């Protein structure tokens, strides 16, 4: 054995030392169907790593369940005029949307009655604008009357009276 060490060339010694440090396995060649493990830069074509526009990112967020419900609610309130028509929207205001029930307040009790008669058509129009499953029913109320429990118009022991003529 001692004789073998003396007959080796310096290149063989270097090769043996490198094999000893890095192991005896040769590096694996990539399979034909696999890309080599090196950084690839984006070419002239589209790539998943390319920057996205704001509208693309917003569309991805909108598709998530938590965003779509809130966006539909916001669309009802912001586009109330186009959903209801200008004349009906001028006399009514959406107040809140709770568990699929849209609360709408009108300018007078006559308008509340009119919108209650149109309730089915209103629900269909809302479903067409924002999608089904957002609004299930409407709660339409007239104007809030002032309380006469205190003040000059209150009569003790008697209920409220018609003060609106």
From TrEMBL:
InterPro entries: DciA-like (IPR007922). Residues 1-52, 144-165 are annotated as: Disordered. Pfam families: DciA (PF05258). Residues 1-19, 30-40 have a biased composition (Basic and acidic residues). PANTHER family: UPF0232 PROTEIN SCO3875. This is Uncharacterized protein.
């Amino acid at each position: 054995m001692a004789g073998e060490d003396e007959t080796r060339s310096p290149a063989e010694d270097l090769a043996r030392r490198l094999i000893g440090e890095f192991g005896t396995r040769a590096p694996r060649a990539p399979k034909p169907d696999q890309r080599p493990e090196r950084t690839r830069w984006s070419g002239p074509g589209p790539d998943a790593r390319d920057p996205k526009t704001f509208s693309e990112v917003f569309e991805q967020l909108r598709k998530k369940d938590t965003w779509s419900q809130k966006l539909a609610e916001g669309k009802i309130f912001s586009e109330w005029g186009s959903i209801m028509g200008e004349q009906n929207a001028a006399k009514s205001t959406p107040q809140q949307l709770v568990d699929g029930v849209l609360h709408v307040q009108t300018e007078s009790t006559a308008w509340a009655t009119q919108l209650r008669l149109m309730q089915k058509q209103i629900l269909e129009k809302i479903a067409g604008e924002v999608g089904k499953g957002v609004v299930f029913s409407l709660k339409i109320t007239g104007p809030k009357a002032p309380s006469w429990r205190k003040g000059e118009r209150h009569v003790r022991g008697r209920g409220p009276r018609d003060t609106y003529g």
